[in-house]
Amino acid sequence: MSKWPIRWDLLFRYRMIEVIALWEGRLTTNHLIKSFGIGRQQASKDINTYLADIAPGNLVYDKQLKGYKPSDSFSPQVTKGHADEYLHILSRSEDMTITFKELDMGFESVSMIRPITRNISPQVLRPLVQAIREKKRVDISYRSLKDGIEVERIISPHTLVCTPLRWHVRAYCEHAKDYRDFVLSRIRSIPCLEGKNVMGKANDDQWNTPLAIELMPDPRLTKTQAAVVAHDYGMEGGSLSIPTNAALVRYVLDTYNIDINVLDSNPKGQQIIVGNFEELKPYLFF
Length: 286
Prior knowledge:
alpha+beta; 33% helix; 24% strand; CBASS_pafABC_assoc_protein; WHD_CapW; WYL domain-containing protein; WYL_dom
């Protein structure tokens, strides 16, 4: 690239250009106009600048399509070329159209299924973010799933964790004298900031223990079925290695719909298993 850093607003528009052209096969100025609320002249300028300064030769104009399409030599410059980047744009666009019903962003033929939004208030989240930023302790009122009783806890949070199903904060708990995961939707009342934290991220052994989860097709599948599953997950040599840490390994498995408590489930249902289960076991049951 000839110029870096690129302004954030321009970078987002260049990414939109690249993602839409790659995954839809047709890019027009309307994509930028509807997504960013800019004029047609600015949209044309953005596309021309992308082609001149960012990725010369990446797009060609097709008169039949009345828009740009990827060239045979297309090479992603401001994206990775992964489908998730296109799905992220669809998700962001749906978020906007839910809030602004009159907004037309051009993705009306896509339907997305989302988990229910957990009940998290900004009054709860803000003090936790501040405590992490300023390395402070927080006094919280928390209701755990174990007994449902509301208890007071003083914690030293170090990381917010977002999984597909919930948000939690990783923190040192002075009552348990260990690191715990606190689900944000179970925090009652507004957290109260205290003094400097007692234990930070550097002392969280599980957080600082790198692990790799090895996924592979369920061996009970036929060879043909296993090949289909391996292709679905982008496995090489029949396995997929996912880097994580000991504190997050359970959440990664949940993301892949792997139930560690049901090891004899229908192979067509779960489809994949953990190849290095014994290595991960100490971090799964405690």
